[in-house]
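Run log, item B.
One chain of 124 residues. Sequence copied directly from the ordering sheet:
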Amino acid sequence: LTAVKTSNKDTVSAAGEKDADSPKEEPRETALKTTAVHMEVGEFRGHKVSVWDLLHSKYIPEENRKELLELYQGGVLTLDQVKTVVSTIVTKAEAARAEQLANASSPRAESTVAEAEHTHLQED
């Protein structure tokens, strides 16, 4: 099974390399670079960004990026799945960052509200 897989890959890549304008770039890599996602969060807010750029952004840790690329290149994940996973990671990372900033800047306000409620309950 492995030999068959390898020979199929070799045949495809050999044919692809001869016909491609950019012999070093794989068709899957080209697809990642040409598929854009409209982002509404973080540094990409309001922009269309390639899946490739999102994969290589600060939001995707290197080990996750490598794993996603391996799964995509191995045919386990489709381009749409990679697009969804990457945009979801970016969105969640930005939401977590925003929540962290909100929590860091508002503990005093929350404790003041809690103290006021506690005081109000004691007066009753």
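Observations after the first pass:
- Confidence is low (pLDDT under 50) at residues 1-20.
- The beta strands are 36-39, 47-50.
Flagged for discussion on Thursday.
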